[in-house]
Amino acid sequence: MEGMACPMGGSNSRLFGTLAQSLNSTPLAQPDPYSEESPDQDLDPVLPEADPDQLLRECEEALQRRPARPHRDLVCPSSTEPCHHKHSSTIRVMQWNILAQALGEGKDGFIRCPLEALNWHERKYLILEEILTYRPDILCLQEVDHYYDTFQPIMASLGYHGTFLAKPWSPCLDVEQNNGPDGCALFYRRSRFSLHTTAHLRLSAMMLPTNQVAIVQMLNCRLTGRWLCVAVTHLKARSGWERLRSAQGADLLQSLRSITSRGSSQSEVGSGIVPLVVCGDFNAEPSEDVYRRFSSSPLGLNSAYKLLSSDGQTEPAYTTWKIRPSGESCSTLDYIWYSHEALSVESLLDIPTEEQIGPDRLPSYHYPSDHLSLLCDISFRDDPHRLM
User: Cα(260)–Cα(255) distance, rounded to whole angstroms?
Assistant: First the structure.
């Protein structure tokens, strides 16, 4: 497998045990990607279970020459004080555009980020370190172009079930020596959830298929017996495409409404609309129409990261901050939407300060992507049907 025996931190580097064991395992076969709805076909290979603490130590060892990642606190939405509790019944959700390797090295043109900082053989450890530090129950990723050779086997060895859906025409394929197309990935912890159904969606706009996709899964929480519908998406990038993003958002909302209603009508799911968590890089500021579509949807969605603000109504100042040849870009584009009548946000991972991010912005030697990871702990409300 690519990069497994390459130098990781100097002349005394070695082949890392837990990671090597995971990557030596047979990766999941690449399926036919598009299906309207498919039953749970659990085809992940059975791997020796990895020790997450050991793997985290190996990441830290591989990264010892690099500066530490920015420190971030888990904050209770009702205060600015750090949260120290972790309810056993909460569900930890992470949303992250991890930056496709081919785009980072080949197309995005981060003029203040040294190419060495983007080297996959080290950058993958920074990504894994972030995931292993917070150990989400549900992990939603965008711009994944190393799914089958890296993330799927590693996450499977850590007890996660993974699903991947590539963009039909990934820009990664235009880059020489690419690792295949990028797309969205959704992982959930097997010990916490069982899978009921998966839908692979190619988003449409004005009745025409687009290059953007979404994965939607109906999960059953083993701890509470409650149902949860989780979706991950990555909408069209760049200014000038606002109407297309709005249409893609409308298409996704319509699909989510259909899937949650259809699911809730089945006896095994029970009565009532299934609660939703929708994660994604929407490539849209809160002023855009697609944001208004989600915030005013009949599905009753709220944006979790608004709860970090003092009034509970304002998004963070940024979730991505980069410098390209066209200039500096500091934007809020990434969101975790949730059904606020059925779900409660217990804590959120705060946003690093400008000083923590540094003058050269993102990505950098100490942070692997141009987007910040978002993370929240949510719980089921006791009376989800109270207002329905």
Answer: 9
